[in-house]
């Protein structure tokens, strides 16, 4: 059975696509795009082996050169909006029950939270505003 070269390129592209899904490596996706381009050159334009390999190499390399910096930039970015307990850090709260190194209660974002002073030797009295510096479990650490 004689299979045309363009079909081999498509089989290679499919294998690279499967590997992309399994490994989540964007470089494999660019190699698959290069294989598809080589299949087009072979099937549509009748390009020889040198043209096929050249198109595959150029398209794959160009794709990787463009996609890798974009992927790295997105990977390095922090989320724009803090959610959950991260959104509560840095906010102000009002002391409802005296807060010291062993405990107390505050009103934070409309909810009552247990709290503890960051500085164990310092106490905050009822009505005083405090800053939330961290959340440990269900306890806000304040100063």
Automatic annotation (TrEMBL):
Pfam families: NfeD. Keywords: Membrane, Transmembrane, Transmembrane helix. It is found in: Membrane. It comes from the Bacteria. The keyword Heme does not apply. Residues 85-142 form the NfeD-like C-terminal domain. This is NfeD family protein. It is a multi-pass membrane protein. InterPro entries: Membrane_assoc_protease (IPR052165), NA-bd_OB-fold (IPR012340), NfeD-like_C (IPR002810). The chain crosses the membrane at residues 6-23, 53-71. The keyword Translocase does not apply.
């Amino acid at each position: 059975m004689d299979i045309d070269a363009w079909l081999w390129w498509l089989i290679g592209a499919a294998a690279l696509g499967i590997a992309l899904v399994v490994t989540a490596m964007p470089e494999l996706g660019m190699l698959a795009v290069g294989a598809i381009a080589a299949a087009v050159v072979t099937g549509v334009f009748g390009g020889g082996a040198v043209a096929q390999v050249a198109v595959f190499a150029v398209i794959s390399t160009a794709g990787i050169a463009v996609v890798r910096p974009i992927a790295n930039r997105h990977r390095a970015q922090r989320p724009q909006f803090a959610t959950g307990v991260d959104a509560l850090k840095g906010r102000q709260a009002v002391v409802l029950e005296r807060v010291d190194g062993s405990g107390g209660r505050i009103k934070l974002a409309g909810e009552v939270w247990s709290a503890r002073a960051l500085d164990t030797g310092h106490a905050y009295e009822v009505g005083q505003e405090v800053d939330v510096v961290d959340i440990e479990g269900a306890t806000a650490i304040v100063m």
